[in-house]
Write a structure and sequence with these properties.
Blueprint: E1 11-14, E2 17-20, H1 28-38, H2 43-66
Antiparallel strand pairs: 1-2
Helix pairs in contact: 1-2
Length: 90
């Protein structure tokens, strides 16, 4: 089934997940290296893992950039859970 609720063409609907097929020009050597280090078994999985890592890294860099940008901020006590007796090392 082509199309989506937002009117995008060229998408396939699998349940509630929309996936778009794309043609990408990726260096085979780079893709193979990425597959090896990520443990992925398929090219699609390799690209998906790489994109997810890029998004996480970018979000981390944005948070890191604003670190300490509020000079009037006060230290706040953190709530910490008490250690469980069942999770103690033997």
């Amino acid at each position: 089934m082509f199309g989506s609720a937002s009117g995008c063409r060229g998408t396939e609907k699998y349940g509630r997940i929309f996936r778009m097929k794309k043609t990408l020009h990726i260096d085979e050597k780079l893709l193979g290296e990425a597959r090896a280090v990520s443990g992925a078994t398929m090219d699609t999985e390799t690209v998906r893992l790489g994109l997810a890592a890029l998004v996480r890294h970018t979000a981390y860099e944005r948070l890191r950039a604003i670190r300490g940008s509020e000079p009037a901020a006060r230290a706040v006590r953190r709530r910490r859970e008490k250690p469980s007796r069942t999770n103690r090392p033997a």
